[in-house]
Design a protein that fits this description.
By secondary structure, this protein is mainly alpha-helical. It has 2 domains: 16-91, Arc Repressor Mutant, subunit A, CATH 1.10.10; 97-298. Helices cover 63% and strands 6% of the residues. The protein contains 14 helices and 6 strands. It has helices at 29-47, 49-55, 58-65, 69-75, 79-91, 97-112, 121-144, 147-158, 165-197, 209-231, 234-237, 255-265, 279-287, 289-298; strands at 16-17, 23-24, 199-201, 239-242, 251-254, 268-270. A hairpin with a 5-residue loop joins strand 1 (16-17) and strand 2. Helix 5 (79-91) runs parallel beside helix 9 (165-197), helix 6 (97-112) runs antiparallel to helix 7 and helix 9 (165-197) runs antiparallel to helix 14. The N and C termini lie far apart (47 Å).
Length: 313
């Protein structure tokens, strides 16, 4: 076959040769696995999990990943072992960098038009409400349209029915890690917003754990709305133009965006000890807010556990 991969002689350490000429760089086992799993997730995103798993051919994935065939088969001697690792990878969640780019872009537009009067409490409230609204609007829309996230939700709902105790445990560990990273990302962003706008958590919540509580509630609401929107797309598309949450600026609000914004704002209040920041300081403090969240999520590691996960009857 013209597309068949040709291996270089064993032990020469020069990598592997692609069909048609050219030599691919030698990869570690971990790099090979990462490329193969990424290529598999791309294929599943294109076809969906239920259809994609049936059509997921190991040879096609290896080709798309551009890795050594023998290295891939050393890692996964059977298709079942490969599919299990792909499913665990799905259970690890789907981080969508495009959402962060869109949020940063929209926030940049708002901050770019920020007047000097933003030191006024009313103008600052307008800015805060609009930034939170835009964030949730972009997040919900992108998440609801993501085939990867729909696959993640389907796997999350079904994993307790998996027969293998070991695989069910791996799923549970991956799902728990995803939840913890999502909360860490949200909590870090909320903490930065509170700092920049001179806010504090409403008692009895206190930092830093209080930001985790709010972030977890927002995450649960996000998932719930996205699930509902799969059968009722109008939920996200239908809006009402109002001036909400103490802002003088009228904007288009969907019910999910309105509810999630309320979850955040009802737990924040002005901090009497905070100083009022200038427009330039507001811009600087919010410029890297997406990166702040991503960095916090990246610091979260799995919690070792040997506990068995009960199988659904």
């Amino acid at each position: 076959m013209g597309d068949q991969l040709q291996e270089s002689p064993a032990g020469q350490g020069r990598g592997t040769r692609r069909a048609g000429g050219g030599r691919r760089p030698r990869l570690s086992d971990e790099q090979t696995a990462r490329r193969v799993l990424d290529a598999a997730l791309v294929q599943l995103a294109q076809h969906g999990v239920s259809v994609g798993l049936d059509r997921l051919r190991f040879e096609d994935v290896i080709r798309d990943a551009d890795v050594s065939r023998s290295s891939a088969y050393r890692r996964w001697p059977s298709r079942d072992a490969f599919v299990e690792d792909v499913l665990v990878e799905l259970a690890g969640g789907v981080y969508q960098p495009a959402v962060g780019v869109l949020v940063a872009q929209r926030a940049g537009d708002v901050l770019g038009a920020l007047p000097d009067s933003a030191t006024d409490l009313g103008a600052r409230r307008d800015l805060l409400v609009e930034l939170v609204r835009l964030t949730f609007e972009a997040d919900l829309a992108a998440t609801a349209a993501s085939a990867e996230f729909r696959a993640f939700l389907a796997l999350r709902a079904a994993f307790t029915g998996v027969e293998s105790d070991e695989l069910r445990r791996r799923f549970a560990t991956a799902l728990a890690l995803t939840d913890r990273r999502t909360v860490a990302r949200g909590a870090a962003i909320l903490a930065r917003v509170a700092e920049v706008f001179g806010l504090r958590l409403v008692a009895p919540l206190t930092a830093p754990d209080g930001f985790d509580v709010v972030a977890r509630a927002v995450s649960a609401a996000n998932v719930g709305f996205v699930v509902t929107a799969q059968s009722d797309p109008a939920l996200l598309a239908t809006t009402r133009t109002v001036a909400a949450y103490g802002s003088a600026r009228a904007a288009a609000w969907s019910e999910p965006v309105y509810a999630m914004t309320g979850l955040v704002l009802q737990h924040l209040e002005p901090d009497p000890a905070a100083r009022v920041r200038s427009p330039d300081e507001l811009r600087a403090g919010l410029a890297d807010i997406v990166e702040v969240g991503a960095a916090a999520a990246a610091e979260v590691g799995p919690v070792p556990t040997g506990a068995a996960v009960p199988r659904e009857a």
